[in-house]
Amino acid sequence: MRAYWLIAILMGSCLQVSTFKATSEAQATRPQNWQRRLSQRFELESIAPDQDAFVLPIAGRILKEDEDTAGWTYPSRVRLQVFATLDEFRDTTGQPGWVAASTRGNTIRLQPLSQLRARSILESTMRHELFHVLVESKAAAGTPLWLREGLVLYFTGEIAASASTEPIGAARIEAILQRPRSREEMERAYAAAYARVAHLIERNGLSTVIGWLARGLPAAAKSGV
Smallest Cα–Cα separation from 164: which of 182, 187, 132, 131? Predict the structure, then answer.
């Protein structure tokens, strides 16, 4: 499994995503008192699964919508890990409080659902993270982060097609996504990743760009758009 966490970051009303390397094996563990609830498409892990189970039909609807948009179906259950407190989320994931959720493979780790719902970002967070699950299910090892992140942003429409962005080369985007030095730098990298992917899709078609997730990028797409 790739040692990357895909992080949803809250910036006002804008939801963005970043990628960081997992810092320790402890980050992948879960509290011993967590319980599980299963639905047809999800495995919910929570210390209060009866309280948090309301998210299952919401996630099911959004996953179906994401699949329809992306054009493929996720073949197994998605794991939702819901933390009881913000401190527990921060301590376990190692991420700051403005991070709403993180995704690795088929596992989405979430801040307390009550907090996400109070800020009216529960559904947008789920939509973004479920697109990451779909994209990661297609991505081969070594697929550039800028392609994966850009595709998610393209699918969600979180960055407008008309949004301006400063030119950033692919190597620089990749470096920032792997180790951003500030939130502002990360925002610029995501805008650039989106612009790069949107341009590739416009020139080559969505199905071709999606195919590159598994087959690898051609040289022309790696060096410039």
Answer: 187
Q: Domain segments of the chain: what residues?
A: 4-138, 145-223
Q: Which residues contact 112 (CB under 8 A, 6 or more apart)?
A: 82, 83, 84, 85, 86, 89
Contact criterion met (CB below 8 Å) for 173 and 146: yes
- Check pLDDT > 90 for residue 59: yes
Round the average pLDDT of the chain to a whole number and report it: 82
- Residue 151 tokens, joined: 């595709």
Separation of alpha carbons 38 and 4, rounded Å: 26
Most confident of 54-68, 79-93, 179-193: 54-68
pTM of this prediction?
A: 0.81
The CATH class that applies to domain 4-138 reads alpha beta
Please say whether the beta carbons of 150 and 197 come within 8 A: yes
